[in-house]
Amino acid sequence: MAVDVSGVVREYQDSRRPLVIATVCSHSSLQIFHGARREGLGTLGISVGGDVKFYDAFPLARPDGFLTLGSYAELLDLADDLIAQGVVLVPHGSFVEYLGPENYMNLRIPTFGNRRILEWERDRERQRRWLSEAGVDIPKRFREPGEIDRPVMVKFYGAKGGKGYFLCKNYEEFTEMMEANVFRGGQYQIQEYILGTRYYIHFFRSPVNEGGYTLSQGSLELLGMDRRDEANIDEMYKLGAQEMLRRYGIYPTFVVTGNVPVVIRESLLPEAMRIGELVAEKGIDLFGGIIGPFCIESIVTDELRFRVFEVSTRIVAGTNIYPRGSPYSDYVEEDMSTGRRIAREIITAKKKRMLDHVLT
Ligand code: AMP
Questions:
Q1: Which pLDDT band holds residue 181 (cuts at 50, 70, 90)?
Q2: Is the link from the previous residue into 170 a cis peptide, with omega within 30 of 0?
Q3: Pocket test for ligand 1, best of 122, 153, 169 (most atoms within 8 A of CB)
């Protein structure tokens, strides 16, 4: 359960003081600050350790001020002070990771987005339920290693950034890989390995917007798409077959090192929008809905079928490619990054007296 911030949100709604967008200095912070500045909001960078010199290299994305902490947990004690400044926290993937999920749920400072999603995003079983009940096609799951009858990906729960995942094709390979894997003994999920092309689709669900691609509540926008650069799997083909590599102790990892822009065949766009809609609508049923950015992580097969292997429910780092908008957001509004869209949503919600629909 998240702490109740409705009283503070009411204060923000009634106050004339401009709001200040704050986030942790990492992940997509340049884009979040840049977007907030372009919408005329104040900005505050939260840093542990104070290594913020790199912002000097990017003056248009440098926050107005910094809050340097000894640990992220100190944010909880500073709540009154930050509320007095009208701070809204914009969480990104690293924000929750650094702060810790429990501290995040207990923060008395209003955050942009629906905090209730966290339990649906972090728990792999619940996320599967959300996606399958939504009606999207997800990779088959194998309950027992003995059932493996095709290429699979074994995902360990503690594996960070895909390091510690492994691929195998049958039970024998599974046991061999378990022996070699550092996460041996930990909880894992065995998932069908989908062969195809990956697309990470950046959506934005607005509970306050009217018109456009409408949902039962609010609307859906497609703001961009990327593909992730992943080490070392992306380059492994240059060294030869996986079986051979294993003999040399080289195992694939899926650690994200960067992102590249992509567009999808236009004939696939209706299905991409339909998937975004299904996931967003199920979210409305299950936990009151996604607020703001989310990302559908998908693979399109050579039969042109989308398979969704994950959903991220905050701004993803792949949006950093598009500080001035993407080939999709350009058809919604020119010059619109996801960071700027977040600031715009907060401003619009305040104008419509609907701030409580976007801050939790
Ligand atoms: P994840 O931690 O689920 O985002 O997965 C990390 C990376 O593993 C993804 O970016 C994909 O490259 C790859 N991946 C994950 N699930 C699958 C799957 N079911 N089939 C093929 N590749 C996958």
A1: confident
A2: no
A3: 153
Of 141, 254, 296, which is best to mutate to test ligand 1, by the most ligand atoms within 8 angstroms of its C-beta? 254
Cα–Cα distance measured from residue 291 to residue 273, given in angstroms and rounded to the nearest whole number? 17
Cβ-based neighbour number of residue 345 at 10 Å: 25
161 torsion bin: left (phi>0), alpha (psi -120 to 50), beta (else) = left
Query: Would residue 61 be called left, alpha or beta, if left means φ above 0 and alpha means ψ between -120 and 50 degrees?
Result: alpha
- Phi, then psi, of 69 in degrees rounded to 5: -115, 160
**pTM exceeds 0.90:** yes
In three-state secondary structure terms, 3 is coil
The DSSP secondary-structure symbol of 194 reads: P
Query: What's the gap in Å between 309 CA and the centre of ligand 1?
Result: 7
* 131 Cβ closer than 6 Å to some ligand 1 atom: no
Do 90 and 111 meet the contact criterion of CB atoms below 8 Å apart? yes
Query: Ligand 1, closest atom to CA 195?
Result: 21
pLDDT digits (tens, 9 = 90+) for 140-158: 999 999 999 999 999 988 7
pLDDT digits (tens, 9 = 90+) for 290-335: 999 999 999 999 999 999 999 999 999 999 999 999 999 999 999 9
- Ligand 1 contact, 297 CB (< 6 A): yes
- Ligand 1 pocket member 357 (CB < 6 A): no
Number of residues written out for the chain: 360
**Minimum CA distance residue for ligand 1 atom 3:** 310
User: In sequence order, which residues have a C-beta less than 8 Å from that of residue 16 and are 6 or more positions away?
Assistant: none
Q: Is 230 in the pocket of ligand 1 (CB under 6 A)?
A: yes
Q: Ligand 1 in contact with 162 (CB < 6 A)?
A: yes
Nearest to 91 by CA among 329, 309, 301, 316: 316
Q: Using CA positions, which residue lies closest to atom 13 of ligand 1?
A: 254
Which residues have C-beta within 8 Å of that of residue 165, sequence separation ≥ 6?
Answer: 153, 154, 155, 156, 159, 252, 253, 254
* Beta carbons of 222 and 319 less than 8 angstroms apart: no
Q: Is 198's C-beta closer than 6 angstroms to any atom of ligand 1?
A: yes
Instruction: Please report, for residues 57, 91, 183, 193, the alpha-carbon distance to residue 158 in angstroms, rounded to integers and kept in the order given.
Output: 35, 21, 8, 19
